[in-house]
Task: inverse folding
């Protein structure tokens, strides 16, 4: 059972940024086409924890924030 007392709810999730990923990918392709610079390594595009109920020990945003920013 979840902390909210429901068997069917999700109390937290990790939110990534698909728009930011796409922008960085297009920028990398453009740099390669422009001057031959190849992308390498790992790029941290970030992640937000979206929680129905805040936990003081974990940085998180609320559900409203998650809904408003899910395609940022």
Result:
């Amino acid at each position: 059972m979840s902390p909210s007392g429901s068997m069917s709810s999700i109390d937290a999730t990790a939110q990534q940024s698909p728009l930011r990923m796409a922008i960085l990918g297009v920028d990398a392709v453009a740099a390669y086409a422009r001057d031959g610079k190849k992308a390498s390594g790992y790029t941290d595009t970030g992640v937000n924890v979206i929680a129905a109920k805040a936990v003081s020990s974990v940085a998180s945003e609320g559900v409203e924030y998650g809904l408003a920013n899910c395609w940022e």
